[in-house]
UniProtKB/TrEMBL annotation:
This is Endonuclease/exonuclease/phosphatase domain-containing protein. GO terms for molecular function: catalytic activity. It comes from the Bacteria. Pfam families: Exo_endo_phos. Residues 4-202 form the Endonuclease/exonuclease/phosphatase domain.
Length: 235
C-alpha cells in the first residue's frame, strides 16, 4: 500500500496530474474541490473512487483511491458536547483497516483550534483499533503550551497508547519537534518551514521494508506551500 498525504493549497483540479507519476494507492488531499460539484471533466473522470467532506465545495478534505480499492465511510461522531469538530473523514479500506483522514484547522474555535480539534475527536471516538491516521494536523510539538491539556504531545500520547506510531519519527529516529524534514513552508518561504503533515500507522501493520519520504519543496513550491508525504508499506 502506498499512501500520500498532501495539502494542495486549493485548485486541485489543476494539480492532480502532478501526483500521477507517484502511483499512490490512496491519496489524502486537503483543500481540494468536491468532484461532485466540479465542472472540470478531467478532474471528475480522474476522481472515480473517492470520499469527500467539506463546508466549502472548493476547499474540503478528500480521500482518492485506485479503482480496485474499496472505501467505505465510517459513521464516527464529530459532536463533542455542544461543539462540532472538523475536518475528519474516517473510512474502511478494503475491509482491512480504518483510515482517519485529517485536516486540522481553527474551526472558528477560540480555544480548541487545530490540534485541539483532533484531541476532541479522539475523546469521542476512542476506539482506534486497526486505524491509520493521515493528514495535515497543522501542529508540531514546538507549539505546545505548558498549561494546556490538549497539546500536540497529548495527542501523540493518545495515539501511542493505542499502538499507533508516527512513521516519520519511527523510521528516522528523530524526536517530535526536532524534525529535519519540513512539510509546510509558510508563505512559501524556506526559512519559515515546519513539520505538520503526518502518517500514523499501527506498528503491527508496519512491514520490514516500509519507507516514508518527504518530497523536496523546490519541486512542489509552484503548486503548494506543502509537500507530499509518501508512505510505502509493502510486504
Amino acid at each position: 500500500m502506498k499512501v500520500i498525504t498532501w495539502n494542495c493549497n486549493g485548485a486541485f483540479r489543476k494539480k492532480f496530474t502532478a501526483l500521477d507519476n507517484l502511483d499512490a494507492d490512496i491519496l489524502v488531499i486537503q483543500e481540494c474541490e468536491n468532484p461532485e460539484t466540479s465542472k472540470d471533466e478531467s478532474y471528475i473522470q480522474w476522481a472515480s473512487n473517492y470520499l469527500w467532506i467539506g463546508r466549502n465545495k472548493n476547499k474540503g478534505l478528500g480521500v482518492f483511491a485506485k479503482p480496485h480499492i474499496r472505501l467505505t465511510p465510517l459513521q464516527w461522531s464529530n459532536q463533542y458536547k455542544d461543539h462540532t469538530v472538523d475536518y475528519f473523514l474516517p473510512c474502511r479500506v478494503n475491509e482491512e483497516f480504518n483510515l482517519l483522514a485529517c485536516w486540522c484547522h481553527g474551526n472558528n474555535s477560540p480555544t480548541f483550534g487545530y490540534i485541539g480539534q483532533l484531541w476532541k475527536y479522539l475523546q469521542i471516538n476512542p476506539n482506534l483499533e486497526n486505524t491509520w491516521v493521515v493528514g495535515d494536523l497543522n501542529s508540531n510539538k514546538i507549539w505546545d503550551v505548558w498549561d494546556r491539556w490538549w497539546n500536540h504531545t497529548d495527542v501523540m500520547n493518545i495515539l501511542d497508547k493505542n499502538g499507533i506510531m508516527s512513521i516519520y519519527h519511527l523510521l528516522t529516529g528523530e524526536e517530535q519537534g526536532m524534525e529535519s524534514k519540513k512539510t509546510f513552508f509558510l508563505q512559501r518561504n524556506p526559512t519559515k518551514a515546519y513539520h505538520i503533515d503526518y502518517v500514523f500507522c499501527p506498528i503491527s501493520y508496519l512491514a520490514p521494508s516500509a519507507t516514508l519520504e518527504v518530497l523536496d519543496f523546490d519541486d512542489w513550491k509552484h503548486l503548494s506551500d506543502h509537500v507530499p508525504v509518501i508512505f510505502e508499506n509493502y510486504y
